[in-house]
Amino acid sequence: MKSSALVLLPLLGCSHAEPAPTAEASPTANAIASFETVRAVLQSPRCVNCHPQGDQPLQGDEGRIHGQFVVRGPEGRGAPGLHCATCHRQANPPASYGAHMPPGVSTGWRLPPPEHKMVFANLSSSVLCAQLKDPKQNGGKTLAELVHHVSSDPLVLWAWSPGYGRAPVPARGVHARLKGVGRRGRSVPSSPYGAA
Ligand code: HEC
Ligand code: HEC
Fold first, then answer.
1. Fewest CB within 10 angstroms: 22, 40, 47, 138, which?
2. Is 87 a pocket residue for ligand 2 (Cβ < 6 Å)?
């Protein structure tokens, strides 16, 4: 899926973000600069609403606190008695239901568990990048597993098909920003973004 390659590639860039002792500072600066485009995806409303600070999911493009006193709960699936699955089913409701319906995915709608919350909201690129690569914070994932997750997890893919009345992750905006970064002469790999 092309759109998920958008996320995948700069994650690899992020893996080279540590300064090598002999290298100049610029490769690190470049990796962080291209990671800015990943940050735009991670902090877009569709992703960040499930990766909030604190223990309540967010809603809408403005990221308002989720209604109905919904909280993360012990496994990320909500408080006992008010699980996400009470309202969020296995797929998005049909468009005929209109806007503001609870979206759904086949693997079960939820937040990351309290042990590794994977906060994306309000973090700088360097902090986000470090968090993604740290197995203690990312749920014990190697970089390869992380890339696999980002390219194939139904929760991530949902963000490109979020259902009626919701804007998907702004892939085109990211593409344009990337080109802008490229024009300023930084090393930004471009091919996987071509058809975004
Ligand atoms: C419905 C909520 C939801 C949405 C929407 C969502 N995520 Fe997640 N995300 C999760 C959960 C739950 C986990 C923890 C998965 C686990 O531990 O198995 C997670 C974990 C992650 C991780 C860490 C790796 C991992 O497997 O734990 C990354 C990276 C990630 N998400 C990226 C994204 C991106 C990028 C988007 C938007 C394109 C997104 N997520 C949208 C719920 C969501
Ligand atoms: C009582 C019903 C109910 C429960 C329980 C519930 N939700 Fe929701 N949720 C909704 C509704 C309705 C919407 C759509 C709101 C809208 O679009 O204005 C929604 C929207 C969302 C969104 C926003 C999607 C987006 O990007 O626009 C997220 C994220 C979310 N819920 C996460 C969760 C999580 C995680 C849980 C469990 C911890 C949960 N919800 C439990 C009803 C519920």
1. 22
2. yes
Closest residue to atom 32 of ligand 2, CA basis: 57
* pTM of the predicted structure, to 2 decimals: 0.85
CB 70 within 8 A of CB 56: yes
Nearest CA to ligand 2 atom 40: 84
pLDDT band at 148 (very low <50, low <70, confident <90, very high): confident
Answer whether residue 137 shows pLDDT above 60: yes
Q: Which ligand is nearest to the CA of 65?
A: 2
Q: Is 150 in the pocket of ligand 2 (CB under 6 A)?
A: no
Q: Which residue has the least CA distance to atom 26 on ligand 2?
A: 46
The domain spans of the chain are 4-184
Nearest ligand, CA 66:
2
How wide is the angle at C-alpha 12 spanned by C-alphas 9 and 15, nearest 5°?
155
Instruction: Judge contact between 138 and 148, C-beta under 8 A.
Output: no
The confidence score (pLDDT) of residue 36 equals 83
DSSP, collapsed to helix, strand or coil, labels residue 127 as helix
What is the per-residue pLDDT across 32-47, written as a single tens digit (0 to 9) for each? Answer: 667 888 888 899 999 9
Q: Do 124 and 38 contact (CB within 8 A), yes or no?
A: no
